[in-house]
Amino acid sequence: MPFSNAFHSPLERASETARVMGGVMPDVAFEPHSLLMDCIPTGPESDPPAAYKSFFSGVTDAEAEAGRAQMADAVNRWIRSKTSDSNELLVTHNFVIAWFVRHVLDAPDWKWMGLNTANGGLTIIRLRSGRPAQLVAYNDLGHIAPEDRTGLSVPHTV
Q1: DSSP-based three-state secondary structure for 94
Q2: Which UniProt keywords apply (predicted)?
């Protein structure tokens, strides 16, 4: 698939992944983008279930506000209706992917917390002119051998 653009978080894990991917896709030029950095996109004001409330005990209001603003800008940049065909590749982190998926599904703000992605999981969001965003695939691990899958807190089987 030809990519119009490829971006990655400037954080080390995503930068390393982009370097590896660039080695097998030499025609794709990856660029770092700060909107793809890992962040916490909401605070306790999102009224999460009791099971998630302890997570926010170490999150400051400033961190939550910065994450909320970052994800609003990221959604505006990447999860918006398109006027022409393009394929953009994003290499980013669990919380960012979870926020994008939550947004596409129009779920409550706190729902990003229950979406966990494995390292290297593929998520595909289709954007077409005049239509709402569509989640095509979430955390697809078919390209990774089961014994090499990492990043999930529970075993994942196919």
Answers
A1: helix
A2: Hydrolase
